[in-house]
Write the structure tokens for this entry.
Amino acid sequence: MPELPLKGESVIFTGTPKSLEIFDLVKEYGGIPYSLPLIQVNEIEDRTDEYELKRCAEFDWLIFTSQSAVTAFHSKMKRFHVTSQHIPSKIAAVGTQTAAALEKIGFTVEFIPSIFSADVFVKQFKPTVNRKLRVLFLKGNLAGSIIREELPFQVEEWTVYETIAKLDSVDSIIEILETGDNNTVLFASPSAVHVYHERIVPVVGWKGYAIGAIGHVTEKALLDAGAVVDVKPEIYTLKELVKVLAKRKEDIQ
């Protein structure tokens, strides 16, 4: 691969990367990273939080599908002085980054699906026990129903965070796309796609820049909105998405 396959490329992240490492990778490839999130994640605080947190120990498994859920959960743990030692439940995570976030706060992750998506998770999550399991899905307000509906266990849900539109990045994204020739927009969730389609596409359309997606669910949201997805990694992480983008740029140069 050429030393700088992304030379002069503006790479716009429409989500909120959890570390600066991904921006450094874009720079290593010669690109210019922009963090312009279209969504904002907030912990949902409720008067029942302490009760719900203590109930976690009653479940056989806790399921996390995002780092945002881990962050919100950890915030509650700290608030009520609960540690991983107080929660003997087994832990399942969708994605290596989610797993890493859980392990950082003291948990051992015992199951990760081969593809980091809820629809694959429900097919592969098959603990070998003879009794009916109780599992708790810690989720965001926009999470789908597939885990609750398709796992053959007693599934309860705890909504620990919310995702809302973040509109102060809209004008900056439009300006970059209108004034530059070498641009890529990266999406990590359907939520960001929806905000982009509603607020930005009416001004700049879907053409004239590259589009990248993490995962087939986000890809489907883009296709449904009328976009063409240029890059999608086999491993659903931002790091792999940037690597695939760099490889594509090399191939078309």
